[in-house]
Specification:
Bound molecules: NADP nicotinamide-adenine-dinucleotide phosphate
Number of domains: 1
Strand order of the largest sheet: 3-4-5-8-11
Oligomer: single chain
CATH topology: Rossmann fold
Order of helices and strands: HEEHEHEHEHEEHEEHEHEH
CATH superfamily: NAD(P)-binding Rossmann-like Domain
CATH architecture: 3-Layer(aba) Sandwich
Strand content: 15-25%
Shape: globular
Radius of gyration: 18 Å
Number of helices: 9
Number of strands: 11
Distance between the termini: 28 Å
C-alpha cells in the first residue's frame, strides 16, 4: 500500500493485515515494520517498492502538490507496477471529484482517469470526508469563540476505520473496473456538524452560518459531496465526538 501514515494510513494498515498476506508499506522514508521506500513525486524507488505486488492499495496523496504527487505520481505508479503479477489496484479517491470545481479534486479526478486508461485491473473508491479531517477543518476555521461555516453546505462524513474496513474488503474482491462510493451513515448540514463539534469540544462557542458565493459553494449546497449509492459506514459523527 501507498500512504501508510497520517489520517487514513494506520487504520488501513490494520484492516489490510491478514494472516498469510505479506503487506508492504510504501512511504518516502520507508521506515517501520514492512516499510519500503518510494517517492511518487520523483519516482525514486517505485519499481523496487512495487516489485511482485499482487494487490496495490494506493492511498498516498498530497493536497498541496497534487498534480505532481497524485496525477504524475499515479502515472509513475502505473509504469512501475508488475503487470504480470498485479491482480487488483485500488485507488482511494473522494466523493465529488467529478463534480466539485476545486483544484485538488480536479487532480484526484485526473488521477482516476490515468488509472482507467491504464488497462490495469482497477477499482476507484470515492470516500467522503473522514471525521478527523472535519475536526481539523473546524479547528482551523474557528476564530476565538466564533466558528463561521458555509451556509447550506451538506456532507456525509465517515469514520476512518469504517472507510479502512471497506477498502480492505474491496481490495480482496475482483476489480470492478470503475467507481464505487462509500460514505458515513448520515447526511448532515455542515452547520449541524459544527454545532455538535462546538458542543463537544468548545463549550461556549458560537456557530455562524455565512453565505459563500461561487460555483464550489453551489456544488456543496447541491449535494455534490454526498455519495450517490453504495455502502455506508456505521459509526456516527456524534459517536466519534463522544469517543
Ligand atoms: N482526508 C479526507 O477526509 C479524505 C476523504 C476521502 C478520501 N481521501 C483520500 O484518502 C487518502 C488518504 O487521505 P489522508 O487524509 O489520510 O491523507 P494524508 O493524511 O494527507 O496522508 C497522505 C499520505 O500520502 C503519503 N505521501 C505524500 N506525498 C507522498 C509522496 N511524494 N510519495 C509517497 N507517499 C506520499 C504520506 O506519506 P509520508 O508523508 O509519510 O511520506 C501519507 O501517508 C488520499 O488519497 C485522500 O485523497 C481523504
Amino acid at each position: 500500500m501507498t500512504g501508510a501514515s497520517n489520517r487514513l494510513g494506520p487504520s488501513l494498515v490494520e484492516a489490510l493485515r491478514r494472516d498469510g498476506d505479506r503487506l508492504r508499506l510504501m512511504s518516502r522514508r520507508g521506515t517501520g515494520p514492512g516499510g519500503v521506500r518510494g517517492d511518487l513525486a520523483t519516482g525514486f524507488d517505485l519499481p523496487d517498492a512495487l516489485a511482485g505486488a499482487e494487490v496495490v492499495v494506493h492511498a498516498a496523496s498530497d493536497a498541496r502538490n497534487a498534480w505532481e504527487v497524485d496525477v504524475a505520481g499515479t502515472r509513475r505508479l502505473v509504469q512501475a507496477v508488475d503487470r504480470d503479477r498485479l491482480r487488483h489496484l485500488v485507488y482511494v479517491s473522494i466523493v465529488g471529484v467529478d463534480r466539485i470545481p476545486w483544484s485538488y479534486y480536479r487532480a484526484k479526478y485526473a488521477a482516476e482517469q490515468v488509472l482507467l486508461a491504464s488497462g490495469l485491473p482497477v477499482t476507484l473508491v470515492r470516500i467522503t470526508q473522514y471525521f478527523g479531517f472535519v475536526d481539523e477543518l473546524l479547528e482551523t476555521a474557528r476564530r476565538g469563540p466564533v466558528l463561521p461555516v458555509p451556509m447550506g453546505w451538506r456532507a456525509q462524513p465517515v469514520d476512518v476505520r469504517d472507510a479502512a474496513a471497506y477498502l480492505a474488503r474491496v481490495a480482496r474482491q475482483p476489480p470492478t473496473g470503475g467507481v464505487v462510493e462509500f460514505g458515513g451513515p448520515e447526511e448532515l448540514a455542515v452547520a449541524d456538524i459544527a454545532r455538535a463539534w462546538v458542543a463537544a469540544r468548545e463549550s461556549g462557542g458560537h456557530v455562524v452560518s455565512t453565505p459563500v458565493p461561487g460555483r464550489l459553494s453551489t456544488a456543496f449546497r447541491d449535494g455534490a459531496a454526498l455519495p450517490s449509492g453504495g455502502e455506508r459506514g456505521q459509526r456516527t459523527y456524534a459517536a466519534h465526538l463522544r469517543g
